[in-house]
Amino acid sequence: MKTKIIGVPLNFGANRCGLEFSIKNFIDKYPKYRDKIEILEVKKELEDFSIKDAKYLNTIAKTCEELAVSVNEIIKDGDFPISLGGDHAIAIGSIAGVSKEKEIGILWMDAHGDMNTPEISNTGHIHGMPLAISVGYGHSKLIDCLYKGAKVKTENVILFGTRDIDEEEEKLINKLGIKNYTWEMIVEMGFEKALGEVKKFFKGRNLHISFDLDGIDPIEITAVGTPVVGGLSREMGKILISEMIDTASVTSIDIVEYNPIYEKEMETVEYVDELLQLIEKKIN
Ligand SMILES: [Mn+2]
Prior knowledge:
Layout: E1 3-8, H1 22-29, E2 37-39, H2 57-76, E3 80-85, H3 91-99, E4 105-109, H4 130-134, H5 140-143, E5 157-162, H6 167-176, E6 179-182, H7 183-189, H8 191-202, E7 206-212, H9 234-247, E8 249-256, H10 267-283
Parallel strand pairs: 1-2, 1-3, 3-8, 4-5, 4-7, 5-6, 7-8
Helix pairs in contact: 2-3, 7-8, 8-9, 9-10
Bound molecules: manganese (II) ion (MN).
Manganese (II) ion binds at residues 88, 110, 112, 114, 212.
């Protein structure tokens, strides 16, 4: 199995300047990736700006559809897709691409829940909605990415490291019974024990990992648009990926929300490079 990296410099899901530079800036810092990352250029579609609760819907739907097709081809070839963002809305596409071929679970490592819907979102930013969309809640144009309907069953989803969940979002998470390891819980029970439970749950099963860099403590990496106090250490993030690959049948990974505008020195690009190296070493 070989890793194939697709870079998707989407910023419309977060509506925040900087994310569109993510892939090119990363390659500029690490030219060794120039021939390794296939860049999916984001093409702007005609938008209906009267839609306020799911902003840039058409551009995001088109980008995710294209990513889903590419990811799906990689899976069908028996290889391992890594989707590098760009904002977290790209997970709508990567998950669709994998789930068309295999029944998967999702480990969603994030400071946020990403379980908003147009009805309950405070901002209308789609990067706060991709997990809800993947389990079948949200705008039908996004739910039906690549093929009709929900991509993953709610009982096969685990949120990990959360510490900033909106009130209505939390109600939806609870209503759907989605397992949610908040950062507070992880601190209380200990990272090892929390990870142990997640490993036990996904052991031997197909698993997509969606890794939001803002899940990591903003003291350790700065280049994310929506930092929240607390979170996993860099090392914990690596242990999480490494041990899940050892335990589950990990099919695919997203690494998202790298925003070079907020970089202090090189700590975030270095971390992305470390994660990619780790995944390549374990998969190839
Ligand atoms: Mn996210």
